[in-house]
Amino acid sequence: MKKIFSAVIILSCFVSLAHAQKPDLAHVDKVIKAEDDFNKLVARKGIKSAFLEVADIEGIVFKPQPVKIVDFYSNIDKQPGTLSWNPKFARISANGDLAFTAGPYVYQNGKTDDDKVYGDYVSIWRTDENNKLKLLMDLGIQHPEPEQEAIVDFKEPDSSKLIAPSKDPFNGKSVILATDKIFNHSLSISTLASYKEFLSPEGRYYFPGFEPIIGKDKIMKFVDNEAIGITAETVDAGRSTSNDLAYSYGTARITKGQVVSNYNYVRIWEIDNDHKWNILLEIFSAVEND
Predict the structure, then answer these.
(1) pTM of the model
(2) 122 and 100 Cβ atoms separated by less than 8 Å
């Protein structure tokens, strides 16, 4: 009996230790709070100071070319006007080290409604050495004043994807880089076929001049109706250590009807139950044409 009792104690300790070593599941509220705190910081300290305070050491903004947040805001005077935004779409990785939000913003540099600029933003966040979310990437599009309220879509990560941190983060990055390059190659062959293969059913599409398009079918209809053709080149990518959320960005040359323009793109990738990476969000920001 004593041997059985001792074995039970040892097993219980082992289970407790294993449970204690398992990382906690992240909650999407963490990144929502980071965005809300950032918004309040902008209102209190101004745009420049707020961006410098929340920036990841490698964080970038598109002005219009990608530039480090710290470099850009350290070398400009105090940015005038007011900026406010409201996250409506958000995800966080199971391990909580990578997250994003997206939603409508309003920028105003004047006193009347005519001075307001409307659009949608996308922000990517990652944790620093203190497990605090820092702004890794930020960009947006402009479009006319929205005609209806944006749809809210906050989803918790899948607990089944919660794993110990990867011991080989470079391998994780290489997988996303390769996936992004495959998609870009596919785009050069057939834009519609590529989106059909790579888009998540609940994907979102952000294109300058238009409100966000939600859902795979609606995105493909938009691409078809606007006669959009895309050639793109990958610049960089990253992936969560829990292997469920990732991002990539690069440059794109888009033919829209008879007009050819240059863009930067950012993609958010999520992995499905079949371990296939799908595009959950894609945004294009305009660049001056050559």
Answers:
(1) 0.88
(2) yes
